[in-house]
Amino acid sequence: MSQEILHYPQPFLLECGKTLPQLQITYHTYGTYNPDKNNVIWVCHALTANADVFDWWKGLFGPGYLFNPDEHFIVCANILGSCYGTTGPLSENPVSGAAYFQNFPDISIRDMVAAHEILRQHLGISRINVLIGGSLGGQQAMEWAIQFPDLIENLLIIATNASHSPWGIAFNEAQRLAIRADETYYLNVPDGGRKGLKAARAVALLSYRTYHTYGKTQYETDLNKTDNFKAISYQNYQGEKLVNRFNAYSYVSLSKTMDSHNVGRSRGSIEKALQQIKAKTLVVGISSDLLFPPQEQQYLTEHIPGAIYHEIDSFYGHDGFLIETVKLTQLIETFLAIPVAK
């Protein structure tokens, strides 16, 4: 495994019209690029993940798993706007000499893809054998496959959509309201908005899991209990867990990025945009996903030429795309064995 940083010293024009004076991209690579240059697996990560895919997608990536460094050259780049090494709200603006904080410009999925493209060219990768992503990562992978249809051989998009739904945007805004209700968010300090971020994460969890998930994992056996419920402890624990590894400014920025996702923007329609994809495509839905319900993946399958749809029956809701690695492995192995149409 290798963690590296690409310093891109040139101005980086954003879709919103603003410019970042320079760009830094932190990324991980695993394995080696083979002589035939046909073993690249590129992972696009989700909202609060990082470039170390072996850490957060165990069971699918890593030694002994489907995508392993003995066979593949695996690349995962931290996304623009994050707090794990790529330029984001806590980065220093070289023009002002201070961190951006709330003044970090709006980032789109297309901006994230543009950063991926800079890294791809830097690494000398001419062809991506498998491009994979779930949730926000799936949005990136889809957008990349539309912009560069001849670059990707196999596209794997999981628990994602062609445009973010009003339901998803509403969840994101509820989380931002929680962060903005924390007065320390406006102090523009690295740990600003911590209490708000904790509350935001608690809101997000309700969209990542389901009624039945909580009913089983947080069920109370003490019939006389009137307070200090397991579900309360769980929400607090998960909120603190995120606060200890993330920051409110990146969370606000990335949630807004997700809101703006729409592959049809400036392309006539969503359907026309999806029809530009040439990669052999597997679309995977999660049966219990409340945030990205299967109907969104079924829609993708209808409009991406030749796409194949499979649905995973999962107890874990949206988080199933990270947890159901055994089922994902079986689906992906079968899919990759299908010859690419010439």
Automatic annotation (TrEMBL):
Species assigned in the record: Adhaeribacter swui
Major enzyme class: transferase
Active site, UniProt feature: S135, D289, H318
Presence of keyword Transferase: yes
Family: Belongs to the AB hydrolase superfamily. MetX family.
GO cellular component, one term: cytoplasm
UniProt-recorded name of the protein: Homoserine O-acetyltransferase
Subunit text: Homodimer.
Ranges where the AB hydrolase-1 domain occurs: 40-322
Gene responsible for this protein: metX
Pathway(s) of this molecule: Amino-acid biosynthesis; L-methionine biosynthesis via de novo pathway; O-acetyl-L-homoserine from L-homoserine: step 1/1
Binding site for substrate: R201, D319
Recorded GO MF terms: homoserine O-acetyltransferase activity
Catalytic activity: L-homoserine + acetyl-CoA = O-acetyl-L-homoserine + CoA
The enzyme's E.C. designation: 2.3.1.31
UniProt cross-references to Pfam families, sorted A to Z: Abhydrolase_1
NCBIfam families reported in the protein's UniProt record: homoserO_Ac_trn, PRK00175.1
Role: Transfers an acetyl group from acetyl-CoA to L-homoserine, forming acetyl-L-homoserine.
Keyword annotations: Acyltransferase, Amino-acid biosynthesis, Cytoplasm, Methionine biosynthesis, Transferase
